[in-house]
Each structure stands twice: as structure tokens, then as C-alpha cells.
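agent> fetching stored inputs for the phosphoenolpyruvate docking request
agent> found them:
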Amino acid sequence: MSSRLAPANAMLTDRATRPPVPTRKDVRTYKGFGVSPGIAIGRAVIIERREASVFRVPIREEDVSSEVNRFLESLEKTREELLELKQKVSRSMGDEYASIFEAHAMIVRDPSFTDKVIQKIESEQVNAEWALAEVQEELQARFQSFDDEYLRERVADVKDVADRVQTNLQGIAHHELSEITHDVIILADDLTPSDTIHFNRRPVIGFATEAGGRTSHTSIIAKSLFMPAVIGVPRLTKMIDNDEMVIVDGYEGTLIVNPTQAMIAEYQSRVLRHEEAERRLLENRAEPAVTKDNHRIALQANIELVEELKDAIRFGAEGIGLYRSEFLYISKSPLLPTEEEHFQLYRSLAEATAPHECVIRTFDLGGRKLAREVIGSKEDNPVLGLRGLRLCMKHVDMFKTQLRALLRASVFGNLKIMFPLVSGVQELRQVKTLVREIRRELDEQGIAHNPNLKIGIMIEVPSAAMIADILAEESDFFSIGTNDLIQYSLAIDRSNENVSYLYEPLHPALLRLIKGVIDAGKHAGIPVSMCGEMASDPLYAVVLLGLGLEIFSMNPSSIPVIKNIVRSARYRDCRRIAELALLKKTAQEIEEFVIESVATRFPEGLISKAI
Ligand code: PEP
Ligand code: MG
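agent> prediction call returned; pasting C-alpha cells
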């Protein structure tokens, strides 16, 4: 799906805005995975993908001009919609997010697009829909063949705009979610991270999907937005009707359809209980994350959106352990962020976080992540394809813009940079050579940068974990990205619900890899953190503490829970638990063992995952 509220090929069904006709009244419960805690109660809105069929219809000569007019009207309508959207998004989310719609509105006025359609209608005497579809195809093929990478990558925008014009042409009403005045729960087969970002306000209060994985970026974004979400519910869009009342229980991973009044009341009181528990947990905000036997841990925040900075501070983060800079690209798409935009953002993050560190990860696009929206790439095996550092080095101009800005911002606060998806030393050397080149350029231009800027890498590819000792000689720090490390070492797509049962952070292979990385970092004297989701799970945190992890970075709202764990644990006990866990043979054996150990060693018991 594309990155706007109601893209032409993923429209709200007509039923979403017509008087609803739910066909069933019975209470039903569906099970999935809770990926973003919280409870949302609202009416279902189903998002369906739909490619409109376009037929070639010959038209009479005397009808040609009215056909052209019809096309011009649809262009105008599309432009108005886009500008209106731009304003709405600008008001609710800022100019950064709104610029995509402005760029799209410019495409609608571009004669190299519009004149071609008109010519086709006139010369071939065909219907506007057909002419548009033909020109769209030609344009997409032309863009794809450009030498200029940036132009080549704009195919997705051409498609987005042309789809929208096509929708208007066909007289299909274009509905926006904001037209709905009551709270809604979005139900979809799948949602991209950019779709999810756009759900950042009323009326959307929660969502559920058929596809997805616990550590998919859609799930991560849902958590960042505090939006209750359940994923992996089979055939969801077939089982639930538009406008049926739905409860999304993001704690338990359930959807309750047509709940009774008593059930709604019970869930409402659960919301209050959770809020109260959260308030209590936040009381530890100013306390240090230190174990009972004085072992000091740092708890940092992962953020994707600048707006999360306030959450990081509110939940007591000691710095930003991961800023996923790719979300800056998606928010600007189809435009690329300028060097100045990068710089201003990184400077403000670094200053707001100082004296704590602020780790900016260079863009990790590709794979399933925003690739189509931003770089237009389509690969058979995207997760094993051009993503992370590989993609940065391929799009070196785009990358240099970011690196220059990072180096310029490095004189503010305590900024560090980190590269994603490093798989070997050669890649690290290449990127460090590029950084040196940019440093020289900046020196020549008399632009300040920090000569001692720390450069670290994510350890998220098994090969990197296995040679962590070698990589440690050339890196200033490591951050273990378990979301990908698990995906790649256990050979399971982190976004694929069919294999999510194999997503086992306590798999012995994983624990050995993690231990190896932590030990290698300690041996080389460099800090090792973890910014994968594993670090935010109370049970896993006990094991990670025991393996010697000292910096945990996570979604801000998880910090108080993990701090509680740290403060009620004894490091000595955790070490023993980890040692014994490493002797077990399966993830299940390890989990049972850890639960049992925790139950006996933690006086208050382990705080449940759902708080
Ligand atoms: C990871 O892979 O664990 C990680 C933190 O990076 P991302 O989730 O953005 O891939
Ligand atoms: Mg990763």
C-alpha cells in the first residue's frame, strides 16, 4: 500500500462510509499476537486493496473533447485532494510529512504526463481511463530506464499519482479516514510502516492485520505511536464486517468482535488498571537502573519519529540508543531530505539528549522497509537484498548527504553514528573510507566536525556476530540488532506470520551469538548495547543482564518495566541464570528454566510482560 491515507489501490471499502450493514451480531474472539500494548474499542474499518480494471473503449470523434474535459476535471480534483491532504497532514504532523503531497500535486500539473494522456485520447479516440493507464505504463517504464538513480526511483510516485487520478476518473468516491467521526479500528490484510505512521491520530485508535511479525516495523511503529495492535489474525478481513464493534487487546493479542456491554465495561476498567500500573511504574523514572548488588545498567530509547523524543525523556531514557533515520526519508518521500534538514534534526536530537549519547543509525532502507516508497526497488528476496549499508553504498550521493550532515552535527551534544546490516570487515572499511573523504571535504571547506566522533555498527547479521572479535578492532561500539539477528540466524522472515512461532529469542544459537558479541566487545574495551526488541522483554532482560549486557535500548514506554527488573535483580543471580541457560538445548527448556528461576529469585515475582 502506498503512503497516503486512502490510496487508490487500497481504499476504504464503500461500506466504510455508507450506512453500515454488519451481518452478524454474535460475540466472536480471534487470536493473533499482541505487538503494541493497550486496549482500543471502536468500530471496524476494513482496508481492502483493489486494482481497478481498465477497459479500452473507443469513443466517437464528437465525444473526444468531453473526454478530454473529463480527464482535466479528474486532474483538478486530484490536485485539490492532494493539496487539501497536504494541509491536513501539515497541521497534524508537520511540514516534513506534508511535503509528499505537495510533490504529488506537482506531478498532476506536469505536462510531460498530462499532455501525453490528452494526445492519446485525441489521436486514438479512446476513453481517458485507457489513455491514462497506457501513459502511466510508458512513464513507469521510462523512469525505470533512467540512468539517474533518483529519477529511476520515482516510479512509485508516478504510480501513486496516476492511481489517484484513475480513481477520480472512474468516479469512485475517494474517501479519507478523517471523514469518519467515531473511533475506528483499522483491519487490513497487511499494513506498511508508512501506512501506520499515517494512522497517527483520531479517528484511528487501533489496528489488526492478517500478516506481520512481532518485530516487523509496522509493529514497532505501532508501539511508538502507543497504538494498540494485534497482528497475525488469519482471514481477519473476511471474518469481520465493516462497522462491527471491535476490541483490540494489544496485551493479550486478541480481537473481540461484537462484545457485550459487560465485556466493554470490563475492558474499560482494564484500561484504568493498566494506566494505574503504568503510573506506578513511572515512579522509578528518576532512579538509576542499578541492580541490588550495584551493577549499573544504562537504559536508552529507540525512536523512529522526532515526536518520540518527549516520550524518551518522560520514561527516563538515558540517551537515544537508536534513531532509525530511515523514517526521515519516508516522511519526506518522494522528496529526499536535504543536508540541512538532516543536520537540523540530528543537531536537535543530540542537543536534547546531551549529556547522554544520541546514536543515529544511517538509513536502513530496503528489505521490506519502505523500499518501494522511497527507492522504488523491487527484489525477489528483498530481505537478503539491497538493504542497510549495502543500499547506502549503492546510493552513495544520497548517503553522502546524510553523512555530511551527521559529521556537521557531531560537534553538538554527544552524537554517535552507527551503520546497519554490516556483514563483514570489508564493508566497514569501505564506509569508513567514505567518512574520511567527507571529513577531508569538510576540512577543506572550513566546516567544523568532531574528529573523535564514535562510529559503531549494528551486529545483526550472523556473519558479523561470528567475527565480532575482528570487527571490534575497527568499531567504536556495537549494538546488537536482535530483530534481524534472529531473522537471519534462524532463517525466519520477521514479518511472516506463518513462521512467527519459530521466532525464538531464547534459542540456544542466539544466546551463544549474543554472548560471543558481548564478550568480544568487553575484550576489545568497546561498549556493547542491544537495540533489538529482545532488550525490552522482562524475561529476556534477566538473561541478557546475566550475559553481561550493560546498555539496553528500547521503545521508550518499555523502559520503566525493564528498570524495575534491573532494580529488583541481583547481577550475581542473573549471571548464574544465564550460565545455566546456556547449557540447555532448546528455547523452550531455556524459557521454562528462566521463568522458574525468576519466580524463586525475584521476591516480587517477574512483572508480567503486559505490565
Ligand atoms: C534490529 O534489527 O534489531 C534493529 C534494531 O533494527 P531494525 O528493527 O530497524 O531492523
Ligand atoms: Mg535491523
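agent> quick read of the result: The domain at 12-50+175-277 is CATH 3.50.30.10 (Glucose Oxidase; domain 1).
agent> awaiting further instructions
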